[in-house]
Amino acid sequence: MEARERPPLVSMAGVDKSFPGVNALRGARFELRSGEVHALMGENGAGKSTLMKILAGIYQRDRGAVLIDGRPAALGSPRAAQELGIAIIHQELSLMRDLTAAQNILIGREPRRAGGLLLDEAALNATAADIFRTIHLALDPRTVVRGLTIARQQMVEFAKALSYRSRVLIMDEPTAALNDAEIAELFAIIGKLKAEGVGIVYISHKMDELKRIADRVTVMRDGETVGTLPAAETPVETVIAMMVGRKLTDEAAEAPDLSAAPVALEVRGLTRGRWIRDVSFDLRRGEILGFAGLMGAGRTEVARAVFGADPRDAGEILVHGRKVDIRQPRDAVRAGIGYLSEDRKQFGLATGMDVRNNIALASLSRFTGLGGVLDESAMREVAGRYIETLAIKTPSDRQETRLLSGGNQQKVVIAKWLLRDCDILIFDEPTRGIDVGAKSEIYKLLTGLAAQGKAIVVISSELPEILRLSHRIAVMCEGRITGFLPAGTSQEDIMRLATRRNTDADEIRRAS
């Protein structure tokens, strides 16, 4: 039988799935061939991850058929899927943070000695080290995951999936936390897996990756499959139109003249070990100051130090011209500073709580009466107002936040800080893992907040996003600010400063 006559490696048809208050999938279909990269696209909440979690045995479908090699597949559990050669790399990291990298990779499959009585640590670490070598990851397998960056944790997740020697590899936003060099290495590994006949499902919101990596693209919207097209012959605009069902306009807005606007935040000589080196900048009311730089440049470290999440060795912070002593996040919140972390699940939300309580979380004293009793009626009214204002898509304010899409979870975090009435907002990777439609809404929201006089810092690894949002751009390299650039600058100018180790103090002073 010729290869083209063989049944697809995976075939899913008529798949339905419902959760309380949500119809996640309605007659969804998907097909994967051996040795192809099949991009699965759609807005957050379109059903992509739900469909793939059914394939991976995490969710059970309500209706529909799933065939592997043309035969019905029993996918009653993740273990059952793994035994059929299906592995998934989740968008949200599923590592056990207090175990080592090697222990995470081989959890439940650890090599043993002494007749199976003892764990063979040497063999465990050697196996993990072999996998790391195949993906060119320089990492000691004995390293505890908690101490790794998000990007390195993502690579450990990838190594874990590879350890199953899978025939089907599902990758959910695999490049969200990777820099350009790491992405290039990942794509090289994907190319090798394709050559070995592995079928790869590639879920991503990054349109530029379609032409680089995908053979075919399937688009989902509102739980249904819109269509499947060859990636090389399909314009990105067509894919976007299929995803959102509407035209998006994300042209950069003209930067306002803020020279006379009062300074909301001043940072002087901020220093923390080797991560932050004598960083100084001003932020004016109504301004969006973008922070650009390669991974490890120190952008997030600056945000965390300003917010009091990490201690600083030196430096001063002034809010509205007054020096403030920020030693912990509560000091920053009292000074009117809100911080939206790059990891919203870990630091921004209580995902097991509902939307109402998450919105009120930073302002509970406002709703606390005698005896510490919460005024649920007032909380409901406020939550309803922000759900309407920010267009948060949720069945009700009692919906658990973990069940919302990534874009709507981000809006809940924003609502929390808006309720706190923070004058200064720091957004760290505000659209990571968010689709193009939700990105457009977040962009409009941020520019609208700036127009209201909020002072905003945006940290992003996506240069088009920095250029789209920023009135001014601070570029960092190896813990230092190497230059400030005006709105309308080029990606090349940003990269020149992002890779320049020596700081020209006079140039920085002139540009700022």
How many domains? 3
- CATH architecture grouping of the largest domain: 3-Layer(aba) Sandwich
Distance between the termini: 67 Å
Structural class: alpha/beta
Strand order of the largest sheet: 6-9-10-3-11-12
Instruction: Please write the CATH class name of the largest domain.
Output: Alpha Beta
Pick out the low-confidence regions.
501-512
CATH topology of the largest domain: Rossmann fold
Question: What do these coordinates show?
Answer:
- The protein has 512 residues and is α/β, with parallel strands linked by helices.
- It folds into 3 domains: 9-85 and 166-245, P-loop containing nucleotide triphosphate hydrolases (Rossmann fold), CATH 3.40.50.300; 95-163, no CATH class; 263-511, P-loop containing nucleotide triphosphate hydrolases (Rossmann fold), CATH 3.40.50.
- Helices cover 33% and strands 24% of the residues.
- The chain has 18 helices and 22 strands.
- A hairpin with a 3-residue loop joins strand 13 (263-272) and strand 14.
- The model is unreliable at 501-512 (pLDDT under 50).
Key terms for this structure?
six-stranded mixed sheet; 18 helices; globular; single chain; Rossmann fold; about 500 residues; alpha/beta; 3 domains
